[in-house]
Here is the input.
Amino acid sequence: MTNWANPTPAGLVGLAVACFCFFAMLNKDLTGVTVPDILPLLGCILLGGFVIQLIVALLDLKAGAIPGGNTFLFFSAYFMLASGLEMFVKYFALTGQWQGAVDGKIDGWLWLCLGIAIILWTPAFFKSPAILFGIVLLLDVAVPLVALNDLGIAKEICGPLAGWFLLATGVFGLYLSAALLVNGTYGKTVFPNPGPLYKEKK
Here is the structure.
């Protein structure tokens, strides 16, 4: 039986799609998207990302990639699946089709926990390619800002700023996905992909 190929490029594209869409939603005055009209479609997009990232997580874990596998796993559950389903709930609540109140502040506590987890896990990525480490650093800022936005703290600043950090995350994610896929296909450097900042001492 042949080994599975590295699924990380697909996972990074899934992350980038979500980041671009969240940027558009958090900067709606700039992008022109309308809330709640976009929420059902955004929910479908995130559910698609859940499928990708769950597969990536399982294959990464099978290959022994502890930081990447675990990160893709909880991102698939909360960043994709839970957020995707919530978009439908929020849409029905905002359009008056949901019976009962919906308090979105609980999202802030979710994102706060995820932000703490990412920050605490960041040192594990110091041994990863420099661009991947940079992506994690961007998420270290973006996720807590999303938490503050959902908690209603300085929403006018935190929401749009989180969107910009997520957009940067998506751009770097797309570049890294191309570097991994194209370089891996040709067996040589086509897109520069700097190595880890941390090197084991011999």
